[in-house]
Amino acid sequence: MRLQVKQINRFFLLATAPFIGVLFCLIFIHPSVKLNMNSSSYLPSGSIHDTSKDIVLQLNDAEEIVNSTLSTIRHTSELYQKTLDTTNNIVKITISQALQPEYIYNKRITSKLGTPYQKVTSERITLELFKVNPGVYQGHAMKVKLKDPKAMKMSLGSDVIGGSETTAAAVQRYGAIAGINAGGFADGKGKRYPLSTTIMNGQYLTGFESSFKDLFFVGLDKSGKLIGGKFHNKEDLDYLNPSFGATFVPVLLHNGQKVPIPVQWQTSPTRAPRTVIGNYKDDQLLVIVIDGYNESGGSGATLLELQDRLLQLGVRDAYNLDGGGSSSLIFNGRVINKPSDGSLRPVPTNFLFFK
């Protein structure tokens, strides 16, 4: 837009320059008349009259030229203003039309989720909360539009390896607007350690570990896009420029296609509280947290059910995060889900969202 205004300003200056030059010439370089009134030389009265008449005629001509020049300047100024207004309108229409596909796509994916019952929006992020209730299980979905890559981070329990804290405690400690539990963990000597490859602030916490069995890595790159999958070489993960991420099992969707779920994870347990994270093709994120009474397999959702649901919602890539008693969703200062342990479980990693 600045470039267009500069071009119009140059056009205006070029258009008016000749007229301004004429005006200056008439004002500062007009003919002068000198009268020599000494005793030996004088102009006849008739000659003085003729000279005065010529001067009057020249002044009249000059006045007409000035008026014509001013009129032309006014006309050029009006034309310039009209051109500027037209250009501004074109820019507004172009911006509006450019946003139409994004608006239409967002409306389409949102309609599949229903009507949000809570929403938080700022210059950095938009969060919308929906209920998930297909009849077999119940839970909540949170759609996230990151406008600033730094509006999502991962926290480490008490900021030490082996530490743990509830998602609510992490949200409060960091001043986040929302949060979910992240990767899996292993207990040892009273401490909780993140599983396998874990990255914080672009740095590997305990080094890179090649993916084995059904483990995967999931997180965000430094531009705020979801990245994930199995990585057998550190260079392959580094190439994606990860900002942070954690590890768990298994991958659910890849490029809009189901990834076969290992038999072990179809039945261990069959049903359970779940936390999953995925992305749409426009890089918006979708988090689903499913409630369940316990981890015995009698309540909650199966991973196969979540695969189908995610596909119906138009999600491209999706990853199963730690579930069971670890599943937690904090939104706007409240615990949204129903933790199966009866209270939130301390975990080593949490994904946090900032207003």
TrEMBL record:
TM region(s), chain numbering: 12-33
InterPro entries the UniProt entry points to: NAGPA
Domain Phosphodiester glycosidase: 174-354
Keyword NAD tagged: no
Keywords for the protein's UniProt record, in alphabetical order: Membrane, Transmembrane, Transmembrane helix
Protein name, per record: Phosphodiester glycosidase domain-containing protein
Species assigned in the record: Paenibacillus macquariensis
Taxon lineage: Bacteria, Bacillati, Bacillota, Bacilli, Bacillales
